[in-house]
TrEMBL record:
The keyword Membrane applies. This is DUF2062 domain-containing protein. It comes from the Eukaryota. Residues 23-160 form the DUF2062 domain. The chain crosses the membrane at residues 36-66, 133-159. The keyword Endoplasmic reticulum does not apply. Pfam families: DUF2062.
Amino acid sequence: MAKQSFGFGLAVSWFRGKVVDPLIQILRRGTEPKQLAFSAALGFTFGVFPICGVPMFFCGMAIAVLKSLCHAPTVMLTNFVVTPIELSLVVPFLRFGELITGGPHFPLTSDALKKVFTGQASWEVLHSIGHALLGWLVAAPFMLGALYLLALPCFIILVRKFSSLPSSPKKPLINSPRAEVRLKVRDV
């Protein structure tokens, strides 16, 4: 029983350090709730792109293109948090893409997955990847809009709650122009 509680405590500690603490830091910096909601929705929408490794690239491109319209740490944090969801949505995007095109139902077998990983993918596998991409592409604007509408009230409440908390006092830097240095001089 001790091992289970240790593992759970370790997971909670990891989640707090990697997700909760960065989110609180973001909220304390006074960013607008609309910008945070848009950034979180953008990070989620790109984060569930059905090809592994690509979401981080898309998020980086969105940050570079949108500049001050989005909040980069929120986009990347949301992208990081939704990574496990990305894999679980590949099949729904695939089936949605098949529905849109009226294409054949691709059987998901271990043999098909093996062919993808070994580079021996047939045209059927490539078509199924295309269907998953099409499913995501059609669903993405709706996900972005719905997530923005859901996240906005949450961020309004969170910003109000956490921006009112005093942040920790910062130590002056020695090289800072406002830092004061006092030296004691002894008579010799």
